[in-house]
Amino acid sequence: MQVVGISLVHNEDRFVRTALLNVAEFCDSILVADHLSTDRTPAILSELSTELDHLQVVRITHSGESHALVEDLAGTDTWVLAVDGDELYDPMRLADFRGRLAGGEFANTFRIRPAGLHCDELDGRAGRAFGYLSPPGRPLLGLFNFAAIDAWRNVRSQRLHGGDVVFREGFDWDSWRHLGEEEGWDQSSFRDLHLCFVRRSSDDEADELAEGRPNLSETRRYRRGALGTLEQLARRSLRRSAAQNPQASDWKSEKYRRGERVGVDATAFLSVPVGS
């Protein structure tokens, strides 16, 4: 068994170093697709690639190119971890979680979703994070069992999103477990601090982004060449309009800000100091 991390980043210089170092021991290799970053992200990734011999950085011009980095892993004994520049996994608990993977606990599962906290405030000095738990918030991507599929092709937007999947017998899109639901934030060995409403780049003007930065696939330039039904095209048009005026978009708030706002101890996620 191997674990491969796949990261798609764009202007993430405040957290990307911490995000990748937090999963460095958990992953046998880490593939980073840098989508036209203009802040310090490329320099940070260059430094990391010299520090970590199992980290590879690829510069891409369209977010859909990121899936090609893992496409050939289909049918192999590989777990693929989605980790982005705004996702901090708990590195200490990942060690225990890797043992659970190797022990076969999740062999009949296609996707494992982590316990998540969709964070809108991070106090690094105090080691506290504030936001909304998943569940009830939208679950994060997490881990994919590539031994459960024979192929995953025609992904247009970004890695591990949509496309055509050829499942092996006994698996489908519903073959997933949400450890946030099963184990809860405090107990789970697979948990993710999702900094979706926090300033992620030194180039961002606001300390906090009220509605979060638009996803790569929500903006016009990241969807060139994508085709679909009239209904899909209509939805994309609405997303493009929202992306051009992020403060007018409430998609992320609707999906991520569910339930009670809570505060948690974030010390374990910040063993590597985040950027300023």
Describe the protein.
The chain has 276 residues and is an alpha/beta fold. It has a single domain, classed as Spore Coat Polysaccharide Biosynthesis Protein SpsA, Chain A. It is built from 7 helices and 14 strands. A 7-stranded mixed sheet has the order 3-2-1-4-9-6-12. It is globular and about 50 Å long. About 12% of the residues have low confidence.
Spell out the key features of this protein.
7-stranded mixed beta sheet, 276 residues, globular, Spore Coat Polysaccharide Biosynthesis Protein SpsA, Chain A, alpha/beta, single chain, 5-stranded mixed beta sheet, 7 helices
Please state the average pLDDT score.
87
Shape field: globular
CATH architecture: Alpha-Beta Complex
Which residues sit in consecutive blocks of at least 5 with pLDDT less than 50? Answer: 217-248
Biggest pleated sheet? 7 strands, mixed
Total number of helices: 7
Beta-strand portion reads: 25-35%
Going by helix content, strand content and strand pairing, the class is: alpha/beta
- What is the spatial order of strands in the main beta sheet? 3-2-1-4-9-6-12
